[in-house]
Amino acid sequence: MRTLLLLLALAGCTGSGPPAGTNTVGPEPGPTPPLSEEYRAMLNAVEAPFREPGTVTARLGEEVSVGNLRVRPLAILEDTRCPIDLDCMHGGRIRVRVAVSGVGETEMDLFRILPITGGDPLRLVAVAPPRWHSPPPGIDPNAARRFGFRRGLAVEDDLRAPRPQ
């Protein structure tokens, strides 16, 4: 008798519910709509420094060669950058702890130079992805951070430097 009840209970379990792979939460997600021209322009501006000659890209924990230096971003210490889809009175900042050969562990800010004894300074020139207030569909605001490093002075730095008379 117990065996018969057990078989009936098991038979009832196998036939209930939707077929495997059926979405029971809601409608199937459709294709991600294309980004607007405005969002596309914003993302292109963020990505542009990564495509400039001399820029080397690293993720957290990844060691890369920037000229004759070995650089490894270790941690994000502060990220108060203005979300890319808002207008802010202050742009905010991002501070990153990095390990640099010949220097050791140090902090770097976006666009500030790190002097290197006997060589060109090191700069953090780009960080992606940007911060978002309301990310558009298809954009993962929590994607792995990428950091762009470059050696030398920026054109803006060259323009501010005193000129010999």
Descriptive account of the structure:
This protein is an alpha+beta fold and 165 residues long. It contains three helices and eight strands; from the N terminus they run ααββββββββα. The protein has helices at 2-14, 37-51, 155-160, and strands spanning 56-59, 64-66, 69-79, 94-100, 104-109, 113-116, 119-128, 146-151. The strands form two sheets. A four-stranded antiparallel sheet has the order 1-8-7-6. A four-stranded antiparallel sheet has the order 2-3-4-5, with no helix packed on it. β4 (94-100) and β5 (104-109) form a beta hairpin. It starts with a helix and ends in a 5-residue tail after the last helix.
What is the global morphology?
Answer: elongated
Order of strands, widest sheet: 1-8-7-6
Q: What percentage of amino acids are in beta strands?
A: 25-35%
Terminal-residue CA separation: 106 Å
Q: Class by helix and strand content? A: alpha+beta
Radius of gyration: 26 Å
Set down the secondary structure blueprint.
Layout: H1 2-14, H2 37-51, E1 56-59, E2 64-66, E3 69-79, E4 94-100, E5 104-109, E6 113-116, E7 119-128, E8 146-151, H3 155-160
Antiparallel strand pairs: 1-8, 2-3, 3-4, 4-5, 6-7, 7-8
Please summarize what this structure is.
The radius of gyration is 26 Å and the shape is elongated. The protein has 165 residues and is of the alpha+beta class. Helices cover 21% and strands 31% of the residues.
